Each structure stands twice: as C-alpha cells, then as structure tokens.
C-alpha cells in the first residue's frame, strides 16, 4: 500500500492546484462580496474587480507553488504571463457571461451563481494552465 507521502508526490500538482484554486476562488468570492454587497458597486463592475484580483493571485501561486515554473529570461516571463492573462481573460468572459445570464436574466441568487460559475472556471483554468501556460518543456 502506498504511503500518503507517495500519493501526495504522485498527485502533488493536482492537490496544490485544488488548494490554490480554492484560495483563488475564495479571493474571487470575497472580493465580489466586498464590491457588490459592502461597497454596493454594479454587479458587473464588482465581478470584474473581483476577477482581476483573483487572476493576479492565481498567476503568482500557480507559477511558484503549483507548476513550479522556472523562467530564466524576461521574455519567458512575459510569454508565460501573457498566455496566462489571455487564458484567464477567456474564462473571465465566460464568468461574466454566465453571471449576467444567471443573475440578471434568470434572476437566480448572485452568491450561489458566483460559486457555481467558479467551479466551472477553475476546471477550465486547470486545463489551460496544464496544457498551454505552464506546460513542461
């Protein structure tokens, strides 16, 4: 029987992605609550600001802890950051669209929909990060 440590090592990237993806989701949701419910900004503005903060948090944690990306030149860092932002902007557009449709059009609970949409976005972001952004050379 494998030890817990060997299982952790085998699935380290996925486990760390789930941990930091959870923290990114928490950052996104808390940011949304702050901007939408406390400061009372427009839904789409609040969601956009929360996304921006969580995307920056995700880049740093994914680069350092999850995928342990080693970039040696500023060109490599810029390429990696640009592809990260492009992929995250794609899922952010999906996030904004789904939030608009589910909350503004269908009148569903905004916080519940924020959580549901985040699950979809986190899964897509893992695929993009693994296959495009931080792929091993």
Topology, element by element:
Layout: H1 4-10, H2 12-38, H3 43-66, H4 74-105, H5 110-133
Q: How many helix segments? A: 5
Order of helices and strands: HHHHH
Structural class: mainly alpha
Output mean pLDDT: 91
The biggest sheet, with number of strands, parallel, antiparallel or mixed sense and barrel status, is:
none
Question: In which range does the helix fraction lie?
Answer: over 70%
Low-confidence stretches: none
Describe this protein's structure.
With about 140 residues, the chain is mainly alpha-helical. It has 5 helices and no strands. About 85% of the residues lie in helices and about 0% in strands. Helix 3 packs antiparallel against helix 4 and helix 4 (about 75-105) runs antiparallel to helix 5. It is globular.
Question: Characteristics of this structure?
Answer:
single chain, 137 residues, mainly alpha, 5 helices, globular
């Amino acid at each position: 029987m494998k030890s817990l440590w060997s299982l952790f090592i085998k699935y380290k990237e996925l486990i760390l992605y789930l941990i930091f993806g959870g923290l990114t989701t928490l950052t996104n949701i808390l940011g949304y609550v702050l901007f939408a419910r406390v400061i009372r900004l427009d839904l789409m503005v609040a969601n956009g600001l929360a996304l921006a903060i969580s995307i920056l948090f995700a880049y740093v944690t994914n680069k350092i802890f999850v995928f342990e990306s080693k970039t040696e030149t500023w060109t490599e860092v810029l390429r990696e950051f640009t592809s990260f932002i492009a992929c995250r902007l794609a899922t952010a557009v999906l996030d904004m669209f789904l939030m608009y449709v589910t909350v503004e059009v269908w009148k569903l609970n905004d916080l519940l929909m924020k959580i549901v949409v985040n699950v979809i976005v986190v899964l897509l972001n893992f695929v993009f990060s693994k296959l495009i952004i931080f792929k091993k050379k």
